[in-house]
Design brief:
Layout: E1 9-12, H1 16-24, E2 30-31, H2 48-64, E3 71-81, E4 84-86, H3 92-102, E5 106-116, E6 123-134, H4 139-148, E7 168-172, H5 175-179, H6 183-199
Parallel strand pairs: 1-2, 1-3
Antiparallel strand pairs: 3-4, 3-5, 5-6, 6-7
Length: about 200
Amino acid sequence: MPKKLPFKLILASASPRRRQLLSDAGYEFKVAPPEIAEPDTPPEGVLPTVWAETLAYLKARSVAEGHPDAMVLGADTIVTHGDRIIGKPRDLDHARDILTRQFGGKNDVITGLALLLPGRIERIITYVRTTLTMRPMTGAELEDYLAGGAWRGKAGAYAWQEGGDKFVLSACGSESNVVGLPLEKLDEILSEIEYNSSQS
């Protein structure tokens, strides 16, 4: 049975992974991919958490303009290694470089969430962080993973749900966040909106 929401929900994302997570969680929603160009890197001095929230908000806002009566959900996931944001790989060689440097240590997966309510009288912007401890890849594992193509279009050049999880020694935090949508936090936000709406 679909989860009850006070307004129709629109997912401002072209990601099939987010779509699947939201569907599996029992929400009814429509998809409207945002038409914005995502910068590769944040301005100097901007924290990764703030950057993830900013991109999520920009995505939600671009879609909300055409859907004034709906809740619009934007999300953006980034990966950091140390203090450095690891973006999406440009090509195979860039993916190899990213994976060689970041496997065998700790990575943070940060997803910014932005939910804009109808009438835009309220907006909720937050983030969720999951810390992954990675094991090193052998040379053969690295080349096999690259050959499989799962690195394409993925922040950090790997996908948890497409074989990347086998290189994870431990995950501290939400696993759905690593896939691209922290369902625990989203459930909390939407449940509060439903409760507040029922009280008004």
